[in-house]
Design goal:
Length: about 210
């Protein structure tokens, strides 16, 4: 099985990549990023590409994929909708255009195309357009994500928040289990979807965790 991962240097992407490399049924992983990836593995190939809005030049590297994981994300803080759209919407649709197989889009709890909140509206619109495609598409909407196995966020404020609130995760898991997952559970669920697991097309944290088990 060949899986293409966009955003493998981010927190969610690191978790997805780790589970891909650990799974014996995944024989090949291709990651796409703007800079080299620190991770090395015999079944991993990293493609450096600057323009995520046009993947045609590297289409050959991404051919024959069984699944595509779109884990690219940016914080919406300080961005206008026009600035937030490319990474969240445009690049996600371009990845779906070029890469075949099962497509898994990492969205977020609260995504809604009708929302007054900009990030939720953009992610919701992207979800709707992807789900309308004539192919297997799944949307995962994690809430609180616990980084595990040394995985960290590339965003400074997120690193601070995760470090400060790490003690809260056990509490949240007891009080609000439907809204909490972890990088390894999310990654395992995505790999399960790539293998053809039966699941709802939109998965929140509780569905992600069930699939991961």
């Amino acid at each position: 099985m060949k899986i293409v991962v966009f955003g493998a240097s981010g927190m969610v992407g690191q978790g997805a990549l780790r589970e891909c490399l650990l799974d014996p049924e995944v024989g090949s992983v291709v990651t796409v990023g703007r800079s080299p990836l620190a991770v090395t593995d015999p079944k991993l190939r990293h493609v450096v590409h600057a323009d995520f809005g046009d993947l045609s030049p590297i289409a050959g590297e991404l051919a024959d994929a069984d699944a595509c994981f779109y884990c690219v994300g940016v914080t919406s803080a300080g961005l206008t909708e026009a600035e937030y759209m490319p990474v969240t919407h445009d690049y996600a649709l371009e990845a779906a255009r070029v890469v075949g197989g099962t497509y898994v889009y990492v969205s977020g709890e609260g995504a809604n195309a009708e929302s007054r909140t900009m990030w939720a509206r953009v992610k919701g619109r992207t979800e709707n357009e992807l789900l309308a495609l004539d192919r297997p598409v799944f949307v995962v909407r994690p809430g609180f994500i616990q980084p595990r196995h040394g995985i960290t966020s590339r965003t400074r404020i997120y690193r601070y928040l995760y470090s400060w609130s790490s003690w809260l995760f056990p509490v949240l898991r007891r009080l609000a289990p439907k809204f909490v997952t972890s990088t390894d559970q999310l990654g395992r669920a995505m790999v399960a979807l790539a293998k053809g697991a039966h699941a709802d097309r939109v998965l929140r944290s509780d569905g992600i965790n069930r699939l991961a088990r």
